[in-house]
Design goal:
By secondary structure, the protein is an alpha+beta fold. It has ten helices and four strands.
């Protein structure tokens, strides 16, 4: 179903990425400032669309604020992370620069608030986060990416005092691992990598799905022996009709000054 690891080229970087897993239990040990400086500098070296540097990251050190993040994410372990970041798509400094150069940021002339720039800035924030996560893993640390912080976008924006032309993207918790979870199965490459064009035969593309379902089911059965978890295809079906009203983006995005209709 999947490519055996022995069929791949191996080096330290590739093995770090192949062994990536989410860590949700951390030892109560602080991360030294040299490591912090290294991780933050690595994030700054990620690719940036048109070199706009349109992202930022807020390091959460206040225990009360960490607890607030855990409440937003509905995950108590977030408050225990020795290092906790919220990555933000951030056109705010660029807007200030443009304004200083005589551009009216309230006018249609100012295009850093358009849907294209929003998407590109979001991409840049994700690339920076992934660079930081990979660097952390390479140093023997554990991480978990926190999309759950977006359960309460309004609260998150308020708690972090995010100004106009910013929007939270993802959180990242980092620490010394206090668990060693199994590697989660990955779907066959044939279901995610295509050649020249998107395949038109859904039945053929999904042919390996039954075997992948079985692998996912086995993974979750071993992880949650007392709490059965659905197979991958059943999880997709459940999520396809989940109530997403609480995750609607239009109002909070507009409140932050962006125009997704342009």
């Amino acid at each position: 179903m999947t490519t055996a690891s022995t069929d791949l080229i191996h080096n330290d970087t590739i093995d770090t990425l192949l062994n990536r897993r989410s860590i949700r239990a951390f030892k109560p040990e602080p991360i030294d400032e040299r490591t912090v400086a290294t991780l933050e500098t690595v994030a700054q070296h990620a690719a940036s669309s048109q070199f706009l540097n349109d992202w930022s990251a807020i390091r959460i050190t206040d225990p009360a604020l960490k607890q607030k993040m855990a409440e937003y994410g509905h995950q108590p372990y977030i408050a225990t992370a020795p290092l906790l970041y919220v990555f933000v798509l951030d056109e705010h400094p660029n807007a200030a620069i443009a304004k200083a150069k005589g551009i009216d940021t309230d006018s249609d002339e100012f295009t850093l608030k358009t849907s294209y720039r929003f998407a590109q800035a979001q991409n840049d924030a994700v690339l920076a986060l992934h660079a930081m996560e990979t660097a952390a893993f390479s140093l023997g640390l554990g991480c978990v990416i926190l999309g759950s912080l977006l359960n309460d976008v309004d609260g998150l924006i308020d708690s972090l005092n995010l100004p106009e032309y910013t929007y939270p993207v993802l959180g990242l918790a980092i620490g010394k691992p206090d668990q060693e979870p199994a590697l989660k199965p990955r779907m066959p490459r044939s279901m995610q990598f295509f050649e020249n064009a998107y395949p038109s035969d859904d039945e053929a593309t999904l042919e390996p799905l039954a075997e992948f379902d079985e692998a996912v089911h086995e993974y979750y059965d071993l992880r949650h022996a007392d709490r059965p978890v659905d197979a991958f295809s059943d999880q997709i079906a459940k999520n396809a009709t989940a109530d997403m009203a609480g995750h609607a983006m239009a109002k909070p995005v507009a409140a932050q000054g962006f125009r997704l209709d342009r």
